Each structure stands twice: as structure tokens, then as C-alpha cells.
Amino acid sequence: MQSIHQRPHARSSQRWSWWPLLPTFPYGKRQSRFTELITGQAWAVEQLHGIWYVAVPIRMTILKLDQGGLLLYSPLAPTQEVIEFICQLEQSYGHVKTIILASSSGLEHKIFLPALARAFPAADLWISPQQWSFPLDLPLAWLGFPRSRTHILFQDGLPHSEEIDWLPLGPLNLGLGTFLEVACYHRSSNALLITDALVSIPQQPPTLFDLNPNPLLFHARDSGSEPLLDTPLQRLKGWQRIVLFANYLRPHSLQVRGFLPLVNDFLKAQERRAINHFGFYPFIWPSGWISEVEDFFTAVPLPIRIAPVLERLVFVRARDSFVKWLRDLSSLAEEFALIPAHYDAPVLISSLNLEQLAESIETCHWAPDDGSWQILAKIDDLLLRYGLVPASPTTPEN
After folding, report:
1. Mean per-residue pLDDT over the chain, rounded
2. Its pTM surpasses 0.70
3. Domain 2-200+309-355 maps to which CATH number in 3.90.660.10, 3.60.15.10, 3.40.50.300, 3.40.1130.10?
4. What is the C-alpha R_g of the chain?
5. What are phi and psi of 11, to 5 degrees?
């Protein structure tokens, strides 16, 4: 993987004016990192994405089509900086022909599609079936999807089927809507593009944080009165805590300060700026959190894994469907360059790795309730109790 160095961009080229539609970090300024994933065949645009500084990389993959032109998989914020980068690729490889929204439920991907479609008005849009919106399930045209250029995968055919295989995971009924993700396997490059279902989470902070290390430094502290110190150790500490937050929502070791201790800590802060939330930090990390990090990284001795938050809240009652999808993927080739939409990429894996993951899922304690998983389990139990999610997600209502 090679980072692509470009001339410095003006701050205005990183502006994302539509951020109030999904008010997540980094809000109106989206810095991007551009990398060549597979020489001459696949590139990535990466941005940070998260809630309250719990930020992880989100990725759009750009694929060179064998017949000429480009395919964009998993949209992200098309800032002027991003558009300029894609236009540079167009000069060498042809125009953007196809934009793929492969997830029916991933709002952090779906929200950027209308703006990306406007930026490349000649491209066809192909989206996964059973798209939905909340709180009102609106027609696609009302959500900004151009009617004349939007096509449904499988229902309206499959784009570039002479060079790409498309494998759906789902549909799974989530109650409010449907989970359906479509993997994209490009045969000539061995690139396997997926959205959320599989990830490879690095033990070291991704280099994307070099553009903005503040999320790491914010969560590396033990109190709001501590300054933001930028050292390798603090970056690692912050990343480890972000990994626990992002995967378990509330790590088992985490404690929350009471009102009076929180106020007392807040008043001790010497530095009050927006980047440190003016000294507000409600969390306490007892020494056990280090063991929780170690357990997380040793629990899956494979280069790929399912994020616990998805295992416990989305795939919890759909183990057989997930295992079948893994085995369908493993039948495509002996080796892959896996490119997920989050965390690390590319991840060099084999069909054996996919089969090993499928076997471990069949034999492991799937979607557990104890330890770090307790909060996820309580959320799932609550949703089940009030009938907000179905007991049989593999039979969604139409």
C-alpha cells in the first residue's frame, strides 16, 4: 500500500457543508488520505468518522475497470479535495462509470451518495436492495438519489458482471429496516470489497490519524484536567481505548464519574478549548482496561474478524447466514486483497482464512452475554423485549 502525496490543499477544499445531516466527527472539515492499494488497479480515499472523538477510518474504494473507467465503492464525503483526486485518476484511467452503495442500512455510507452522484453526473448508481430511511421510510428520489441513474442490484441486473462477482449477505430483518450488504469481487485484481461485515483492526493507530491526532490524545487521558500530549505512547493508549469504545460501546472496565467528582475534575482543568471539550471528560479507566485490550486482540487469531457490535446486535440470530456467506466468498479464489470500508486495508487473506473464520463461528460461544459484551447484550435483550427487533431476522417482511 502506497500513500499518494499531493500538494497541500486549502482548508476550503476539505469543507463538508452537509454535515448537519449526520452530525458526526469531524463535522464540517473532512481531511482525506489517498492511498494506492493495488498498483494501477485500486485506490482508497479515507476519512475519520465517529461520535464524540470515538473515531475510526472510513474508506471509499476506487476500482479500475478492465473495460476502462472507474468504479466507486462505498461513498464518503465528496469534498473538493476528494473530487480533485478522483478527477486526476480519471485522466489516466477513464471516467467514473459506476458508484456502488452496497449496504442497505449503513447511514455513514448512504448519506454521502447524493452529493457524490452530483459530482459525477455521468455515473450510474447501483444500490443494494431494500434501502430504508428513519424515522420516515421515504422514496429514494426524496433522499436525493437521481431517479434516472439509480439501479437496484440483482433486481435490475448486475454491473460489470463480466469482471465482477456480487455476493449478498442478507437480507436480515432489523425491525426498523433491513440489513443487506453486497460484497464485490474483482477477478483480475483479486480485490474483495466489502462494507461492514468483516474488518481487520490494527493494534497500532492507523496513519490516517496523522492528519488529526486529537481523538487519540483526547481519550488517552485519565481526567479532563490533563492536557492533550502528543507522544507515541499517548497515541497508542488513545487508540486502544477507541477500539474498545467502537466495538463494545461501553467497555466492561470503563467507569463513569459521579456528578460531584466530574465537576471537581472539570474545575481543575487549566486548558479550556473546543478540542478538549473545555476540560469535560467523564470516564475513569481502572487498570483492568489493558487486559480487556489484550483479550480483544487475542480472541480472534486471524487477520479478519467480525466487529463485536455487529456480531451481538445484527448477526446475533443469523449465524448460519453469516457462515454461508463466508463460505460463498471462500469459493471465489484462493487468495484475496480484502478491502473493507473500515479500519485496515488491504488485508491479504486466503480462502482458508475465510473457512477458518466460518469454522470458529460454528464452534465458538457466538454473541456472548458476559464480560465486555454485557452492554451489547443488554441492548439486544431490551430491543427483543419490546418487539423492536425480530427473533427470526432471516425472514424479513416485505
Report:
1. 92
2. yes
3. 3.60.15.10
4. 21
5. -60, -30
